[in-house]
Amino acid sequence: THAIVNALEVRDLSRTFGARKALNKVSFDLPEGAFLSIFGPNGAGKTTLLRTLATLSAPSRGSKVKVCGLDIVSEAFELRERIGIISHNPLLYPDLSAQENLEFFADIYCIDNAKQRIDELLEAVELKHRRLDLVRNFSRGMTQRLSIARALLPEPDIIFLDEPYSGLDPHAMDILDSLIAQVRDKHTFVMVSHDLDKGLQLCSHALILAKGKIVMFEEREKIDRDEFAALYRSTVGTGVS
User: What does pTM read for this prediction?
Assistant: First the structure.
């Protein structure tokens, strides 16, 4: 057990690509165990924010960011063991079977009860019957389900989801919903979403980002759905989502 800390402590987070400021002095705190949904138009900096928090992209100088109490730059190596990532890229090996993929990641993370964890997760994502099949033969939904199992395998403190529902069939969406519900109280979640209804339904906190800056950051229970939708629409502008 460790003292309750904020899962995220973000101070003056900036990220520039040439002259363009993808993130411009973003600051907020997120408590441990929260579920943050991040909304905003294309090019708002949502994925850059997610990638930076997940140590996949370095912030610009002067940014001070802690995830699970660890600095994302100086303590990135330790932090990566406590992070799970679910994105468009499944981060799986197509020429390995479902089981071999999970065994490979279990080795990397030095998971003790690996066999039991892998069995539980394959059951949870409804892929037990396909465990020996090569991932290259999986549908998009099955690949995404396995990628969820991969992310949950080390029981990370924080899970980053980059539009995890995009391209999923309804059945795969239902499985993702029930998985999130099952493990909701064990992790902190940070999700980038284009789907206002889904994002608001899941979240405890919501953030709207535009042009690299926070337009709004609020607890879900304090948000009026209609006002939020209006603000989101005005942010997104003339129908460019």
Answer: 0.91
